[in-house]
């Protein structure tokens, strides 16, 4: 109970209400003390008026008047003359004098607290103004013991009433908070528990019903989160199934390509000049295809190997990429340009870097193939003290808005109809493995530019 939100709310409400009552108690007890002494002054004034009406009062009657007023002496100042109106024997001398005529709230509170904690029964003098302007001042002497007991009795009644009010207020607030807040929170928690049992079930997604603005906002946010998670889980399941299928296909494809690789060994022995010129390209393409199948199988097992970094001439990889895409372009009016310095050496995995640049150039070629006028693709590179920057630039129509929004997301960032978006996602992952970045520098009706940045991280040896 104490660890629950409702239990703590009940306890805190009771404590805070009691604290508020205590803060009210201090000035209340001071006001009670002031009223008590003013009441004694009024009684004493009434007794003194009886004496003024009859100068000769019986001593027994005078003593009765003093006892009724609960004072020892009454002094009344009228017309600048100070007169001892009534008097009796005092058990002890006067210890304190209190003037109520000009007392401030701070003084009254201070004197009340001192009197409340002081157990001594002392004789005190109280000075006040007579009611109805019946003189300049009235002064009495009285005992402090009855005053203190009356203050304690009043204080106890205040505290008991405060406790009752605190508990009553806490219970009402608890019931209100339970209906307005705790039950809706319990409902949200229940929805979360049911959804956690089967997050793929869209029927378990919460529907906002709370009337409290903040709780409804929380329910709306939870619904959005559950919807996204359910979709992500479904996509993950589809990707897992696709990955299993791709792994099986890659396994069979690797076997077929390995057989084709054996035949290329025979082709290389041909004396035909055209075959001799084309054979190395064919061997290189088949070798890369075999490596790709092996990498796909490793990725399907969550064992994608990291890049094997070596120092390689970038121009050779760039020319291989462009040469392969030239053959793929066929009769399309697409021009390819390689602007990579022949002496530029980069530290990278040659197979993975080839895949990155091949994906980028292929995407550019496919974008230009969809236009009647064709265009130009440029692969260029620059070097700085910190990194190598490789750019693939085309003058095509630019990427669609949807492709830019999900550029490196598999199955969502396809730039053409029927495209899966895997090429850019794979390229970005391979570049990240090198510690670099792949970014879209710009894409509009004038063309598209992708930039690969590979950090140096040391000198080239």
TrEMBL record:
Is the keyword Glycoprotein assigned to this protein?
Answer: no
Matching entries from Pfam families are given as:
HATPase_c
Annotated catalysed reactions: ATP + protein L-histidine = ADP + protein N-phospho-L-histidine
Using the UniProt record, name the top-level EC class of this enzyme in a single word: transferase
Q: Which residues form the Histidine kinase domain?
A: 248-458
Name the UniProt key words of this record, in alphabetical order: ATP-binding, Coiled coil, Kinase, Membrane, Nucleotide-binding, Phosphoprotein, Transferase, Transmembrane, Transmembrane helix, Two-component regulatory system
Keyword Metal-binding on entry:
no
Q: Which residues cross the membrane?
A: 6-30, 158-181
Protein name per its UniProtKB record? histidine kinase
Q: Which organism is it from?
A: Sulfitobacter noctilucicola
